[in-house]
Amino acid sequence: MRTTTQAADRRARAALSRLMEPSDWVGLALVAAVGALDGLRIATGEVKPGPELQAELYRLLNREQSRSQQGMLSEALQRWHPRIKDLDPDRDLATIERLGGAVLVPGDESWPVALADLELAEPLCLWSRGQHSNGIPPAERTVALVGSRDSTNYGNSATGDLAAGLTQKGYCVASGGAYGIDAQAHRSALAAAEPGHWPATVAIMACGLDRYYPAGNEELLRTVASRGLLLSELPPGAAPTRWRFLQRNRLIAALAGTTVVVEARWRSGALNTAHHAAGLGRPVGAVPGSIYSANSAGTHRLLRDGSAVCVTDAAEVAELAGPLDAGAAAEQQAPLSDHDGLSVEDLLLLDALPVRQGTTVEKLSAVAGLPMRTVLAGLGRLEIMSLAQQDSSGWRRQRRG
Amino acid sequence: MRTTTQAADRRARAALSRLMEPSDWVGLALVAAVGALDGLRIATGEVKPGPELQAELYRLLNREQSRSQQGMLSEALQRWHPRIKDLDPDRDLATIERLGGAVLVPGDESWPVALADLELAEPLCLWSRGQHSNGIPPAERTVALVGSRDSTNYGNSATGDLAAGLTQKGYCVASGGAYGIDAQAHRSALAAAEPGHWPATVAIMACGLDRYYPAGNEELLRTVASRGLLLSELPPGAAPTRWRFLQRNRLIAALAGTTVVVEARWRSGALNTAHHAAGLGRPVGAVPGSIYSANSAGTHRLLRDGSAVCVTDAAEVAELAGPLDAGAAAEQQAPLSDHDGLSVEDLLLLDALPVRQGTTVEKLSAVAGLPMRTVLAGLGRLEIMSLAQQDSSGWRRQRRG
Question: CA of A78 to nearest chain B CA: how many angstroms apart?
Fold first, then answer.
């Protein structure tokens, strides 16, 4: 009985995902109010909505005070109407099964809990293809690497190094399957993943999963579908549109615990993803680049306005994401300099020590401007640290190492 | 009478600047407590300090609780003692005059008010050479450009563009006269300055102004001395030491209202200048660069830890510094895209419009998922915006421009 209900809910959500555009607020509020099954009946005109529903939708959305409540739902019904004739959820479910995929719905064990942060904008369902037997990698283990389609060699190198490094550290690399930075992120994650450590990468698409878009990425996306995961909130057959790309970006931001923009122009879809991530309170990183590269103008913009943290390697991204295990955190260590940890007086003394010919304690006292007693004590300390040495000519500098 | 006192104070401070290292806290507290003239008498042993002075120094420094008060001053006296025999302020004043320079002291009209932010660490005097007839440019009009001595071509280009742009905007470029970024900053400011708009640039040195250090910058520093300003808190003849470089950095930070690090390694003196500036509450900028360049590791570190704001051109530095006049502020404007300012519904409609062959309103309604009424109204709006057009085949996209 429970299984039957679940199957009916899944089927209804599959149908609704064709009827409604992503982030259709009235549609999402309708499902939140009455559930997917009754929502579908109302959306398709099978059941007439009562006045209590209008009030409930108004309450859920509570931001449409200017429009009449009646207008909001009836406009939505008009909007959905032209697509009712194309509804065939059984066909769509058969299509995704034939592709070795499935449709996930809230309540499924494999439904990503991180999507709940989207609140009302949580997708109705997720169409999925690929290595989903272990579920979708959790957000805290997923880093999105996003950026321009027309990436530079610099951007590709940076993406490749970050994706490989993050994969080796055990993170899953998510991106949008587009040309440029996205493709490089998927490709490098696939290359760096140990065989069997799947899904190696997750591509979150703005179209149905029966098509490979863009066409030039077909081979890459086929590999992602076999060794990684393809995800979309759109049913098979759905074409990508600008609206769907923008809404897809919110899914990337929500499925990844951390989003890093590697390269982006001043105005770029990747910045939209970064803003979604920031809106969800997730950490955002940006890779710096040349001030002469238009493809870094967007990342610099994020750094400048404080929306993103500067990240230059996989370790810094991992630090932003939070470590997967505490032992793995290795702080960047710079080589020690001669003068590290010296007191001011010992530093003055070190500066005063000649490099070649030795000198006397009296002369050191005058040159360094330190009392004799301090010079003598300091020379002792510097000698222990192998920074000063004494020979027949007097005291002089000793080079470390 | 007043003039005589001023001359005596100037002479005493000139002498003290040879006796004491920069930021000698006990020496600075001594001068703060009793003035430069009596301070010099005490420092040279001519006058014995009374017990009230010890208490006053203790109060001024209030951080040396572990050492006895007696010890603090007697240690300082020992430290100064070896240099007393070299004191000859009249000779030093004659030297700086022969070089066309002067020694400035607090109270002079041309004494930079911004140095007061250093509190007790305000220098005893400033030795000066060059175009100082108009005084030292005020901090709000001065930007420090600092960075690695071993700069890259990228760093030199960035420095050159920033220095030229800032000079053209009316800012004075300050730096430390060193190789690399410093030299490029001075050079480009000199090149960009209108004749007569002097000082074109200010070099703040860690040695006496009778010497050109480093030797390879002699010609540049001679030009700065003729068309710009050379400043130092050290008297003629003083050699540069690491301590003096570190203390010089505080003067750069204090004399410039804004400090920008163009290139810096992970550990670099330029970061020390940036930290001084941050400590003074002055804005700090950092120029991003390649993640593969060791010379940008330090600037990225500043960006990453939030000590600096990302700056990519002179306009952004000027924004950080605050405009010299309100009218000059020109916001960066990106070209408009087709979809800027469209409502969600018009965006959906624009996406649905075919580019080549026209289509019907009914088809647009189904493809866009919008009611007919909305499609018709939207087409009207898009037509007005020259984004949609109608011909015999129906409605299609019209490209802008």
Answer: 5
Q: Please give the residue that has the higher pLDDT: either A57 or A225.
A: A225
Cβ atoms of residues A159 and A262 within 8 Å: yes
Is residue A400's pLDDT more than 80? Answer: no
Is residue B232's pLDDT more than 90?
Answer: yes
Structure confidence at residue B377 (pLDDT): 86
Instruction: List chain B residues with CB under 8 Å of A344.
Output: 243
Mean pLDDT, chain B, whole residue set: 90
Asked if pLDDT for residue B67 goes beyond 80, the answer is: no
Please report whether residue B104 resides in a domain. no
Residue A220 has pLDDT above 80, yes or no: yes
Rounded CA separation B35/B13 (Å): 9
**Closest in A312, A350, A365 to B300, CB measured:** A312
Chain A neighbors of B371, CB-CB under 8 A: 75, 78-79, 81
CA of B136, closest CA in chain A: separation in Å?
Answer: 30
In this predicted structure, the answer to whether residue A144 has a pLDDT above a threshold of 80 is yes
The answer to whether residues A203 and A271 belong to one domain is yes
Can you give the residue range of the structural domain that contains B349?
344-397
CB contact under 8 A, B291 and A288: yes
End of a domain among B276, B292, B327? B327
Residue-wise pLDDT for A358-387, tens only, equals 888 888 888 888 888 888 888 988 888 888
DSSP result, A118-140: GGGGS-S-EEEEES-TT-SPPGG
Query: From the CB of residue A254, how many other CB atoms can be counted at a distance below 10 Å?
Result: 26
Q: How far does A387 lie from chain B, in Å, by closest CA?
A: 15
> Which residue type occupies A120?
L
Q: Do residues A183 and A295 both lie within one domain?
A: yes
pLDDT above 50: residue B333: no
Question: B179 and B274 share a domain?
Answer: yes
Whether residue B150 is found in the same domain as residue B277: yes
Among chain B residues, the shortest Cα distance to A310 is held by B304
Burial B101-132 (b: 16+ CB within 10 A, else e): bbbbbbeeeebbebbebbeebbbbbbbbbbbb
In a domain, residue A102? The reply is no
Distances (CA, A) of A328 to A137, A142, A174, B41, B324: 19, 17, 21, 61, 50
Domain membership flag for residue A334: no
% of chain B surpassing 70 pLDDT: 93
Band the pLDDT of A325: cuts 50, 70, 90: low
Which residue(s) pair with B304 in the sheet? none
Q: Which residue has the higher pLDDT, A252 or B367?
A: A252
Q: Are residues B305 and B243 in the same domain?
A: yes
Last residue in a domain, options B277, B296, B327 = B327
Q: Which of B75, B310, B366 sits opposite A303 (nearest CB)?
A: B310
Name chain B contacts of A331, Cβ cutoff 8 Å.
none
Per-residue pLDDT of A10-21, as tens digits, reads: 999 999 999 999
Out of B291, B303, B371, the one facing A303 most closely (by C-beta) is: B303
Give the number of domains in chain A.
Answer: 3
Query: Edge-to-edge strand order for the sheet containing A142-147?
Result: A102-104, A126-130, A229-232, A201-204, A172-175, A142-147, A258-263, A284-286, A309-310
Residue A344: which pLDDT band, with cuts at 50, 70 and 90?
confident
Q: CA of B300: how far to CAs of B26, B106, B261, B292, in Å? A: 37, 37, 10, 11
**B contacts of A366 (beta carbons < 8 Å):** 82-83, 86
From the list A166, A310, A34, the residue with the least C-alpha distance to B286 is A310
The pLDDT value recorded for residue A55 is: 82
Measured in angstroms, the CA of A303 and the nearest CA of chain B are apart by 6
Q: Is pLDDT above 90 for B326? A: no
